[in-house]
Amino acid sequence: MLKPKIVTCLKGYNAKTFSSDLMAGIIVGIVALPLAIAFGIASGVGPAEGLMTAIVAGLLISLLGGSKVQIGGPTGAFIVIVYGIIQEYGLSGLMIATVMAGILLVLMGVFRLGNVIKFVPYPVIVGFTGGIAVTIFSSQINDLAGMGIQDVPAPFIDKWICYFHNIGSVSWTALAMGILSVLIIIYTPKISRKIPGSLMAIVIMTLAAWLLQRFAGVTSITTISDLYELPRGIPAPSIPEVHLAEGETFIDMVRQLFPSAFTIAMLGAIESLLSAMVADGVTGDRHDSNMELVGQGVANIVTPFFGGIPATGAIARTMTNINNGGKTPVAGIIHAVVLLLILLLLGPLVGYIPMPCLAGVLVMVAYNMSGWRSFIAISKNPKADFIVLMTTFLLTVIFDLTIAIEVGLLLSIVLFLKRTNEAVVIRSFHHEIDPADNSDVQFPAAEKLSIPDGVEVYEIDGPYFFGIANKFDDIMKHVGSRKPAVRIIRMRKVAFIDSTGIHNLEILCNESRRSGIKVILSGVNRHVHETLEKAGVIDMLGRENVCSHINIALEQARKTVNKD
């Protein structure tokens, strides 16, 4: 039964635990403030939308999730996909896609797909994460350098061409502020790990920008209030008006947005479960992956009605929660309350934050996401893994994240099947079998087992699935100079058989029968035997021709040969 983690955590909850959660929640809320604002702006919405996402989604993920210490909110992984949806479909399209993604996440959890998500290949994850990092970095150059470009192209190559064309409009004051913000974020942990570097950069640079404007007359530094209107309170839930093209129906728009919604759901599932797994490794706890997906799904269904964007578990904030003593989901709830109080009480001050400083924060987010060490490590692995990594990376950067994930997963599946096909060994025996190499031979049998004339023995070492079925058929056609009387197929190492394998086996049996060749199966395990039984293959062969081990199969073959 799916049960939120907070239900079990509140049993025996005491003042000492609350004290730890309170301190952790306050610190995480402060850490989340600059990130929520930065992610909201970078996604193409605004600071208020980023904050509302952190508040609403953070609250719901802590209330309904399957991890004790997971902190939810907007993350860098969604910036690329959200920005693309807004550019093409507007805010109403983003809302529809996010709600659809939330429904998909809930269904994943209800149908117990939490563990399946964990099997997404590591090169694919590193590839699209690195691609997102490069894209985030590219999107911040305009603000970091204070170029003031009004409409920056969305495509990666066009964006950089635009930057080079406007290189002369760089504001050296803004660029210096952005670089200083990066340096403050890098060096603050070396002075004190208790103070978030991003928050320190925002405080110092906001004060510097105000002083420069007030006493030095510097007006070239753009601030948040110059670009966005900040709310005075919590926005009421609302449904944006959906603008449809001429002749387009709502169903048509849903159909067009489904690939983006699927990408959001996959990203949310992967990132949240990876974050929860890392947290488990630190805390020694065990999260409920299915309940976590349900919690993430509900958060993404509700948050858009408050103007929010997609949200998921954030590993940096989750680790901050753990390192500062967070014990239960109450810490995540407190983090959401802290952000709400900041929005209500200090909202106007957010407008003074300079855009180059926020760009510096996101540059560091991009660097931390890049995983360049993982790129180097995977480059030393088999070439196929590196090809999958680079393909996913380049498709994410140059084309689209949705395409990148689809192609990356497809490539991984193809390479997995290729490796599995290469790993499965099919052996043929014509004269004798060495008992020392075959564990299912009954002893005592010190001498080698002889194979009667007119008998061929084949052994399949590995799963008998569609990738192997045709390979096995080809080998049998090319081995042997004359037609045998009996074919023994040893299946002791066949863990499973799929429908293609069954179909191939049925064709083999029918062709052998027409050619006067008897087929005997040896060493069939219980699971494969049940599958063949249901498919009618056992009755087709005759139950006496499905033997438990090779000795019986050879004896059965001798009787057939001697009879002939």
Describe what you observe in this structure:
- With 564 residues, the chain is of the alpha/beta class.
- The chain has two domains: 18-241 and 248-369, no CATH class; 425-563, Transcription Regulator spoIIAA (2-Layer Sandwich).
- Helix content is 64%, strand content 6%.
- It is built from 24 helices and nine strands.
- It has helices at residues 5-9, 15-42, 47-64, 79-110, 114-117, 122-139, 141-144, 156-165, 172-191, 197-215, 224-227, 250-283, 289-302, 315-323, 330-350, 355-370, 372-379, 383-399, 401-423, 466-478, 499-514, 526-535, 537-541, 550-563, and strands at residues 72-73, 312-313, 425-429, 432-433, 449-450, 455-461, 486-493, 518-522, 546-547.
- The chain has a five-stranded mixed β-sheet, sandwiched between helices.
- Helix 6 (122-139) packs antiparallel against helix 16 (355-370) and helix 20 runs parallel beside helix 21 (499-514).
- The radius of gyration is 31 Å and the shape is elongated.
- It starts with a helix and ends with a helix.
